[in-house]
Automatic annotation (TrEMBL):
Pfam families: adh_short_C2. Gene3D superfamilies: NAD(P)-binding Rossmann-like Domain. It comes from the Bacteria. This is SDR family oxidoreductase. Coiled coil: none annotated.
């Protein structure tokens, strides 16, 4: 079998990628790195102003962008998102399920079960809903789905139980979808970041530093010391791994979970 030509400079050339959960950190990087790799991008999130900003950034890279305000916990909103993507571009080649919600960080013996259910709704069922809606279109294009997971899969620290439950379910779901959709030519993979050096983490480290009376850099250095590379990954580095899994460069990769954490955890 002869491998298809895959331009390394633009591995997503002329493809259409849907990205949910577009925020100022990883979501923005996912959109821009896909655009830089040659893709047109459909952007979904609840914040219309943020969507417009990221859409303008995508267009600044010479690619088309479609911003669709949507709460992916809602069936009607998801259907509208899928329809808008197909109406605008006529196809979908890739889907990145990036939207997430962190349940209350409490021990499982104490956490509110309604909050646990809400976490499953965003972290698991919303991703399944959107994948199911786009599966027929992805099958027409030998498409690819990437679930954004978390390094919470790799530890069992106190108070993270509800979050680990949801993310473990997301991983199991991705593996099962890989088996179900594989015969239709659709690949399904997972990326599990740990710390991501983005605005939310920078704010948190600054807060911890003030609480301890030390510079935020001290908090960063302590966290970075737990990784093999001695630093924390940035959003573009996570996004580049996702871009690889979306592309034909990973055409034989499905059902896998790739950790991107600068060596904090080994798997």
């Amino acid at each position: 079998m002869t491998a298809p030509e895959t331009p390394l400079a633009a591995p997503l050339a002329d493809r259409v990628v849907v990205v949910s959960g577009v925020g100022p950190g990883l979501g923005r990087s996912l959109a821009l790195r896909c655009a830089a790799a040659g893709a047109d991008v459909v952007l979904a999130a609840r914040n219309e102003e943020r969507l417009a900003e990221v859409a303008a950034d995508v267009e600044g890279l010479g690619r088309r962008a479609l911003a669709v305000p949507a709460d992916i916990r809602d069936e009607t909103a998801c259907t509208r998102l899928a329809d808008a993507a197909l109406d605008a571009f006529g196809r979908v080649d890739g889907l990145v399920n990036n939207a997430f919600a962190t349940p209350p960080l409490k021990d499982l013996t104490e956490v509110d079960l309604d909050a646990v259910r809400a976490g499953f709704e965003t972290n698991v069922l919303a991703a399944l809903r959107l994948t199911r809606l786009l599966a027929p279109a992805l099958a027409e294009r030998d498409g690819s789905v990437v679930m954004i997971n978390s390094a919470v899969l790799r530890h069992s620290r106190r108070t993270y139980g509800a979050y680990k439950m949801a993310k473990s379910a997301l991983l199991s779901m991705a593996q099962s979808l890989a088996t179900e959709l594989g015969p239709r030519g659709v690949r399904v993979n997972t990326v599990a970041p740990g710390y991501i050096w983005a605005p939310n983490l920078k704010w948190y480290f600054d807060r911890l530093g003030k609480k301890r009376g030390v510079p935020a850099q001290t908090i960063y250095d302590e966290a970075a010391a737990t990784t093999d590379l001695g630093r924390l990954p940035e959003p573009d580095e996570i996004a580049d791994t996702v871009m690889f899994l979306l592309s034909p460069l990973a055409r034989a990769v499905t059902g896998q979970c790739l950790d991107v954490n600068c060596g904090e955890w080994h798997h």
